[in-house]
Amino acid sequence: MSIFSIGAILVGLSALFGYINHRLLHLPHTIGLVMIALVASLSIITIDLLDPTLGIGGKVTGMLRQIDFNATLMHGMLSFMLFAGALHADFSALKTKRLVIAVMAVVGTFVSTFTVAALMWLAAGWVGLDLPFMWALVFGALISPTDPVAVLGLFKTVKVPDTLQATMTGESLFNDGVGVVVFTVVVAIAMSGAGDAGGAHGGVMGATEIAKLFFTEVAGGVVLGFAAGYIGYRAMYGINEPSLEVLITLALVMVTYALALALHMSGPIAMVVAGLFIGNRGVKYAMSEATRADVMTFWTLIDEILNSVLFLLIGLEVLVISENANLFGFALLAIPVTLIARALSVGVPIVLLSRWEVFTKGAVPVLIWGGLRGGIAVALALSLPETEYKVTILTITYGVVLFSIIIQGLTVKPLVKRMVG
């Protein structure tokens, strides 16, 4: 099946399921897509169990396996969605909460990563699963960052105080980039230490190599994003041609992300920085009113379309992991573990900063429950090398993501009303 045919099916299903949700379920758009796609997947599994000769599941799974979820999201869709999210973010509000955002994005991510790793390693031993601590750390690294796509989607249906929204937005935009870098480093360490177990790499990475890799990814992403944003801003500053300026922003995203991948810098961080630069300085000083309207409308549509396809894929991917039903119990254990880790990753920064920062009433429970996980975690799990631990990590990741999107996503609105008032 051609790429165009697969794309046509996904966009068609997104439109169909979105229409069904709008007419019948009235759920938030992305959550509705996940739930309908999940029901469709479970229906296909049930039909196959009742009549295996039909082979419907095999055909659908075959199509899904043609889609490289990791490459599609991490090397394609994510660049557009992160830029769009940062473009629409309120920079002045983010600036007032920059210390909180920085501490939560960095310290919080590390606290959560190691907490998840320790608890999942203990849980694996308790249920008799072989999951070395380093691979539990890999899971902690990929599941700890909140997903900016999922979190930003919340604010289309849930109204929270501006300062709290700024904190959640900034944290999700930046801890995603930090989390991807941590994940990259931890996987490299895990694989470098796999030589004794038959891995392809020998010799454990040293502290200098780890620091160099982390610095290159993070600092390089910031510098690249700032440079790209400035170049795009200067290009638009001297002209007044809406269609051309939309094209400039599109080129900025695609070229910058491609450069980040080629230079081994953090593409997500580069996109966030570039998006904030264009959304703040570019919108104010380099765009006419007509251009501003066209640029914002264009990126809103891109964001909505890609969001729809992404959440549809999350619901359909259950077909791919349905063969690992024996791990579903362990996946259920991962849900409270990630919530405990999230509580610590929120609580520690807030305790550290409470002397200098004033937090909104009810901020802690909203930050904990509203820290959604989404497609990025699934994509990172799918990107893992083909080791004996990949299936386990992928299955528990998927379980946490489904719980996060459906259960947390549907209940965060009443929580906000109750806690924030």
Describe the 3D structure.
It is built from 18 helices and no strands. Helix 4 runs antiparallel to helix 17 and helix 11 crosses helix 13. With 421 residues, it is mainly alpha-helical. The chain is globular. 80% of the residues lie in helices and 0% in strands.
Provide a brief overview of the structure:
With 421 residues, the chain is mainly α.
- The name CATH uses for the topology is Na+/H+ antiporter like fold
Would you identify the regions where 5 or more consecutive residues have pLDDT less than 50?
A: 195-202
Largest sheet, in brief, is:
none
State the helical fraction: over 70%
Please give the count of helices. 18
How many E strands? 0
Our measurement of the CA-to-CA distance between the termini, rounded to an integer number of angstroms, reads: 51 Å
Mean pLDDT: 88
Q: Could you tell me the strand content as a percent range? A: under 5%
CATH architecture grouping:
Up-down Bundle
Q: What gross morphology would you assign?
A: globular
What radius of gyration results from the CA coordinates? 21 Å
CATH class: Mainly Alpha
Order of helices and strands: HHHHHHHHHHHHHHHHHH
* Structural class based on helices, strands and sheet pairing: mainly alpha
What is the count of structural domains? 1
